[in-house]
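Sanity check

After download, print the first record. It should look like this:
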Amino acid sequence: MFTKRSSLAWIYLTAACLVLLSLGAMLAGSTYQQQRSLNLRADALQHQLSQILPPFIAHYDVTAINRIVDANLSAEVEKITLTDQITAEQATWSSPEPTVKSHWYDRIIYISPVSTTTLLTYEGTSLATMSLTLSASQARAHVADQLLYLFLPLGSAIAGLVILFTILVARKQSAIAKATATVKKLAQQDFTSLQSAPQSGLPALDAALDTLTLNIQRMIQSLHKELKTLNNSMMFDAVSTLPNREYFTHQLNSWMSESEDTPGAIFIAQMEWLDTIYRRYGYIARDETWRLLANSLRTAFSDNKNICIARISGSEIAILLPSQSEEQSRNCLHNFISTLNNEVSMAGFEPNHGFHIGAVHGQEMPGSQLLSLADNALQRAIKQGEVFVFNRGSEEQVIDRETWRELLSHVIKEKTIRLQTQPVMAWDHKEPLHAEVFTQALIDNKWQTAGRLMPYIQLFEKGSAFDRMVIDCLAEQHAREPISQALALNLTDDSLCSPSFARWLEQILKNVLPPEKLFFEISEASARNNLSACITFSETVRKLGASVGVDHFGRHLQGVEYLSAIKPAYVKLDQAFSKEQNGQNRLFTEMLANIAESLDITVIATGIKDDESKQLLNREFIDAYQGFIHPPTLMVRDEKTS
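Expected structure tokens:
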């Protein structure tokens, strides 16, 4: 604070010194002049009385002497004393004016009273001695008046200049403060609030900041535009406007993995009727039919936010349904068949003719294996002349919906879960940046991952309750053994959109858990689908001292403008970029990392299984890594589940 205001303090001190020096010089000069004038008046009075009084003293004219002396007494001439030379008799006359009271200036204005003594003679005879005493009070008062007359205009002028300068400096400081706030917002790419931010008041500075803002905004927009351009040119089919095989493979690697244990389904449809349209009417009619089919499929599956519909060959279309139970997958298959039948009928073909579908549902399997099983199912459907063939990709126990509801309710009520942590390691640090918390629930005496439960958590809208249970278990662990390292917790969409969950979490962070040790991860899908809720949540937890991260960054290979709004501390690149280290993935990785780096966001690679995949990472763009190269370790085991 002193540093910020030191310039003003020096200005005030300089002004005060100037005033004091001016007054001091004035005081010294006036004091000298008044002392000199007082001495001159005393000499003049002494000379005058020395000429007038001797004749009257010689003739003993007391009346004349009294009259002459009284006439010369005043407030300044305090006392006149005559002493006879022969008899030594004294006669003293004092001023009739009352004694002057002391004033404030008596201590700073030093003018001494004047006392003189002279011998009075007449015709060569010494008659008497005369003593005069002149008071300095009037001289001091005169000096004080001069000081006041000087101080009022001088002080007013200096005070006015100081006030004016203070206003100017305050205006400059306010402008600098506003410019600093603007630059900080530019660093965070917060262009929305900049539009409503107050101007600094300095036209030149405002113009420079506006130019800087415009240039930075254009640069950032060019990065996002380049990402979208790459996505459209490399990941989309120009005819159908659907994603192509490369994008479908990226999504498959992102969602489906043997380590993720996420259930999902793949449909592959072979549509011979499109080839028939091409042979009959040409490629223009076929391409238009593709566009109509793509629009119909988007409409039919508009409620499935994470679905991927792609054209993977000239007459094949594939659909990926991540985080879907078998029941949900079968319902989507019926919807798919219905949509195809509608398009087939509109094209003049018989329903359930002209297409075949291979469908597979599985979990804890590589995406490539699941895709191969779906293709095998398609070949069986074509060979057998069936509309579709539905296979299970893995041996899994089929549990009906209501049983799942009961199992989930029991897990949440009894907290039959255990927590595991997996470290996120930086290149040059032995200690992890933080550790991500994974949850496993005990279902029918078997530990199931949260990814396995997620379709039913979303179906029964138990995301908020599930997240509360996990945080409660973490709080119990913290009570037994305080958290020593930073932890990252994944949250569901239900929690991010729930005001009641935010209020509950606020109390937990204030009273139970240390917020500075916690990161809350928001998936890219949540940021894209519920951006306003994610912004509100991130602002809330940051005010409490916690931080936010973004998980599955780059999964959709589209605009990531949400970063500047959510302001995460880090982003975790989607694991699909680590599974296949090809030129295409490296290009997207560098582009996404550059965007994150422009916001000073830490970039973390995920899905790193071993040292070989770790060595393939580009340290120029990647700040840290995470994966089964460091397997999850048990953090807490509830007594009810041990």
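If your output differs, re-run the checksum step. Summary of this record's structure: Residues 83 and 90 are 4 Å apart (CA to CA).
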